[in-house]
Structure formats: C-alpha cells, structure tokens
Specification:
By secondary structure, the protein is an alpha/beta fold. Helix content is 44%, strand content 21%. The strands form 2 sheets. It has a 7-stranded mixed beta sheet, with helices on both faces. It has a 6-stranded parallel beta sheet with strand order 2-1-3-4-5-11, with helices on both faces. Helix 4 packs parallel to helix 5, helix 6 packs parallel to helix 7 and helix 8 crosses helix 9.
C-alpha cells in the first residue's frame, strides 16, 4: 500500500512539475538558470475553508514561483487530523526534501511530524504549534500577545466595563487557546463581563449560529470579540438579522487586506488584529535549510492592529507584550 501511495505521489509530483514548467517560458529559465535538481516540498494545510488559509497557500505559491529550484505539492486535510497525519506519512514515504505543515491540532500531528524530523527531513511548522520540539522550525505570530492587545484595546474602547461575547477558535488548537488566554490577561482587573462564550471552530457559519444563541439570551451586548475575522463577521450578520448590529462593536483577528481590513473599512468591524500567514517566510526558511544555512528554531512574525481610525495610515504595530506602538515605528 505504501509503495502504491508513493507511486501516486511521485506521479503527482511529475504532473505538478509539468504544469509548473508549462507555465514558464524559456526566457524565464534562461534568466534564472535551470537548476540541476528540482527540490520537492510537501505542504499540508489543515483546511481551506478559511480565507486566511487560502491566502497562506497563495503566499507559499507566490514565493515558490520565484525559485525555479523548488516545487511545492499542496494537500488539504479538510479539517481532519487523521487525513493530515496521512499527508505527513505519504510525504515521508515519497522522499520529499522538506515538509511545511500547518497542523489542525497539536496532539494528533505531533507523532508523524516528529517521525519525519527524526528521518532527517526538515519540517517547518506553520501557524499552529505541535507538542515538544521535534521539528526544524516554527513560524508564526505571537497569538497570546495579539489576544492580550485585543483585550487591552477592548478595555480602553469600552471605558473599562461592558458586556462582551467571546467567540473562540478551535480550542484544541494552540492559536485558539493563546488568543483566549491573552485576551483574558488583557481584560484582567477591568469590569468587563464575559456574558457568553462559545467555540465556533474558526468558521463563520458556526459563529453566526452561536451569536444567534447569545442574542436570544441577552438583551444587552456591548461588544463581540471573535478569534478570527470570519467569526466576527458571522456575529455581525446574526446581529444585523436581529436589527441589533448598531448597538454593539465587533472585533476580529487576522486582518487580511481583502477580509478583515476590508471589514474595518466597511464599518462591519471596528478593529482587526493582524496575524500574518508566514507563507513567504516558510519557503525562505526551507531554502536556507536545504542550502545548508542555519535557521532559528522559532521565528516570530510582527503584527499590527487596524482600526477605523488608523487603517488609512497602515495600522499600528503591536509589541511582544501586546501593547501598541506609535505608527511611525
């Protein structure tokens, strides 16, 4: 069976290479120089149901296209940890040169990632962490700092007190846990009351459904803090359907230009905290490793907050402690 899977994957690699090469002109190869060996990177995405993850894959593809010596094979686990475990095992069996993985959950993905690492295959863990340290490099922003910055911003926006709904990401994933923990640290000592909280699993339809429950139970809600922008938009749509959207503030995380930042410009969200995808940085890290250069075990990406007041100026940077800096940083 493994041999069959390997053959299928190798066939996929050849097909992908043919498609990729077909899109390049002779002059492009002449300019960059055709490499003697094409290195293969296997990328396993936990799901493509979130626009942010679609953007991550696109960022990887865009950066990889600049380097003719590599090709990337993409797989979508469709929110299934067992399927994603199989991805890693298939990449190892096929003998890829490196693996990039954005895990759905930490615990189920830790063993196959550790096994690949022990086999000498460089593994870049992107966005969501695994348990332990048996991987080559982790790349991501500091979710706890972002959550803390969101909490402190909300305390300031509400004058220190108010009734808040928290719509959480998948709480078996490390970003969901860190965005929750950081947020609670950010509102500590204030009179902010969390009147309703639910796990919307990063998905807008689930967020909308949970918000409908919150609206049915509470006559007054001052603000909704969602762990991602689709969740915040889902809450907004539920409130608008109940004709209550103007009585509350919506805050999200991710701040993609065409999503969270666009929602801020449209007045749907009052603030969105940036979480960069790290796709470009993952490809660059793989290239460094395959060329024998050392990379840090952990690469933390900077992030910004975009509000209705600062979005035209490019947002405001967040410090590692969760505070915001002056825009001219």
């Amino acid at each position: 069976m493994k041999r069959f899977l390997s053959l299928v994957l190798i066939a996929s690699v050849a097909s992908a290479a043919a498609c990729r090469d077909a899109g390049k002109t002779t002059s492009e190869f002449e300019e960059k120089g055709r490499p003697e060996k094409i290195l293969t990177i296997g990328m396993s995405q936990c799901n493509l149901g979130e626009p942010w993850r679609v953007q991550m894959n696109q960022d990887i593809r865009t950066e990889a296209d600049l380097h003719p010596e590599i090709r990337v094979i993409f797989k979508d686990a469709q929110n299934d940890s067992l399927r994603q475990r199989s991805h890693i095992e298939e990449y190892v069996s096929a003998g890829v040169d490196a693996i990039i993985v954005s895990p759905k959950e930490a615990a189920p993905l830790t063993p196959p990632i550790a096994a690949a690492y022990e086999r000498g295959i460089p593994v870049i863990v992107l966005d969501r962490r695994v348990l332990g340290d048996r991987y080559t490099c982790f790349i991501g922003a500091d979710n706890k700092s972002i959550g803390r910055a969101a909490g402190e911003w909300i305390v300031g926006r509400l004058g220190g007190k108010g009734r808040v709904v928290e719509l959480k990401g998948l709480m078996t994933s490390t970003p969901g846990q860190d965005r929750h923990t950081g947020f609670r640290e950010g509102i500590r000592g204030s009179e902010i009351e969390i009147v309703f909280e639910a796990d919307m699993k990063w998905l807008e339809p689930d967020a909308r459904k949970e918000m409908e429950s919150a609206l049915a139970r509470f006559d007054r809600i001052d603000l909704v803090y969602a762990h991602n922008d689709p969740g915040a938009r889902g809450a907004y749509l539920a409130a608008r359907a109940a004709n209550r959207e103007k009585s509350m503030i919506f805050v999200g995380i991710d701040a993609l230009p065409y999503e969270g930042q666009a929602y801020v410009r449209q007045g749907i969200l009052e603030a969105s905290f940036e979480y960069p995808t790290g796709g470009k940085e993952a490809v660059l890290a793989v290239l460094d490793i395959l060329k024998g250069r050392s990379v840090d075990k952990e690469i933390v990406l900077p992030s910004r907050v975009f509000t209705t007041k600062n979005i035209d100026a490019g947002g405001e940077w967040i410090t590692s402690e969760g505070d915001t800096l002056e825009q001219d940083r």
